């Protein structure tokens, strides 16, 4: 995929989540739905929790547009945690699919972006160690010599 297209995708997703963050702080009904203070209470959360979720979404949106793999990784993983909570909330509250399709869709997208931006120095944690080949000298151990 071209770099411009990927940059556009990051900006588009950041815009979506920044807009979501603003609607969490909005005191009344929004263009998209009813007030989040009411929604969070209906879902069983304190209404102030919307500010925490909104702050996380806003910070993650900023991290997504910074053209660095580490910041994009942090933004995507932050949103994965938030979206996991959103998906779980929709499942537990038996929300209709027409109202809750966006959270699992964005969760999958953020998972792909988190994997795509996995920091290079952390990739060794996922690789299996390679067995030494015949040409590779083995480290000597002074304790095993007779």
Automatic annotation (TrEMBL):
<dbReference type="Pfam" id="PF13564">
    <property type="entry name" value="DoxX_2"/>
</dbReference>
<keyword id="KW-0812">Transmembrane</keyword>
<dbReference type="InterPro" id="IPR032808">
    <property type="entry name" value="DoxX"/>
</dbReference>
<feature type="transmembrane region" description="Helical">
    <location>
        <begin position="48"/>
        <end position="66"/>
    </location>
</feature>
<protein>
    <submittedName>
        <fullName>DoxX family protein</fullName>
    </submittedName>
</protein>
<keyword id="KW-0472">Membrane</keyword>
<keyword id="KW-1133">Transmembrane helix</keyword>
<feature type="transmembrane region" description="Helical">
    <location>
        <begin position="98"/>
        <end position="118"/>
    </location>
</feature>
<feature type="transmembrane region" description="Helical">
    <location>
        <begin position="73"/>
        <end position="92"/>
    </location>
</feature>
